[in-house]
Amino acid sequence: MRWMLSLGVLVFLVACGGEEAAPEPVPEPVIEEPEPEPEVVDLYPNEACARVIVVAWQGAVAAGDAITRTEEEAETRATELRARVEGGESIDTLARSESDASSSGPRGGLLGTYTRQSFPPIHAPIRDAVFELSIGELSEVVRAPYGYVIASRCPAEKIHTRHILVRHVGSVGAPAGTERSIDEARARAEELHGQVTAEGADFAAIARAESEDSSAEQGGDLGMIGRGLLAGPYEAAAWQLEVDGISAVVQTQFGFHVIQRLADLPPEAP
Fold first, then answer.
1. Residue 115 CA to chain centroid, in angstroms?
2. Residues 44-63: what's their mean pLDDT?
3. Are the CB atoms for 126 and 144 separated by under 8 Å?
4. Phi, psi dihedral angles at 150 (to 5 degrees)
5. Predicted confidence (pLDDT) per residue in 198-256, tens digit
6. Do 52 and 148 sit in the same domain of this protein?
7. Is 250 found in the same domain as 167?
8. In whole angstroms, what is the distance from residue 142 CA to residue 118 CA?
9. DSSP-derived pairing of the beta strands 142-144 and 110-115
10. How far apart are CA 81 and CA 187, in angstroms?
11. Alpha carbon of 270 to those of 43, 44, 115, 167: distances in Å?
């Protein structure tokens, strides 16, 4: 029995080439390198776009009656919100829910795009802080007359559009004596929209003849304007367009617009 067992082992070894079968090689694990973040190219280095969260206190400039916190409480709250952004929360989302700025807050804190010279005087206290930031960087808490501010610098982006504007009674900038109702203005804007889309009329020519703002002389051309400086609904519609695309009729506080996106103009030399 002992001999038979040895013979069986011998037969097994011969069948395997006289050696024990080598274990299957274990493949090396494939480690995928993370793709590098795309480099942000700043086409407008002498301009800065900013998103902000504003925490007001009772008595601060433009603070409404609903603001009851003290200045000390406002500073503490701003510090807490800054820590949340540092911890990974979106400044856009927090601005919408937490900022006391009635204009920039609903726009995700978007303050606008400015040169140092064109920065609005009311925002002068945060101007230097914004321009010292790198794109995507977050400022320390800065005191301004209207509240404590946290600012993040965003890439300066611009869009080139032209438009046809139809005003109505009560719209911002409507001249004295304007009698067109809001419904009449909407209907007129829809009619003009049809002329430049379905009928193929020349947009610039219609703007020169019909648009009711100073850009009419240039065929409605507004030039290159930085993100955050146009009326919210206008800007949202414009950025969704392809070059040469024409929007549906858009309502803003200025009236009703028909918008066409144009090819970008090259950045001006600094």
1. 18
2. 93
3. yes
4. -115, 130
5. 999 999 999 999 999 999 999 999 999 999 899 999 999 999 999 999 999 999 999 99
6. yes
7. yes
8. 20
9. unpaired
10. 45
11. 11, 8, 10, 36
Residue keyed to tokens 């800007």 = 235
The verdict on residue 13 lying in a domain is no
- Amino acid making up residue 113: T
CA distance 257 to 112: 21
Q: For residue 141, what are the domain limits?
A: 47-154
For residue 119, being part of any structural domain is answered with yes
Residue 115 vs residues 109, 139, 155, 182, 226: alpha-carbon distances, Å? 18, 18, 13, 36, 11
Least Cα distance to 258 among 185, 171, 166 occurs for: 166
Residues found in the chain: 270
Residue 76 or residue 20, greater confidence: 76
Site of tokens 């300066």: 156
Residue 239 within any structural domain of the chain: yes
What kind and span of H or E run contains 251? strand 250-252
Looking up tokens 């009326």, which residue turns up?
231
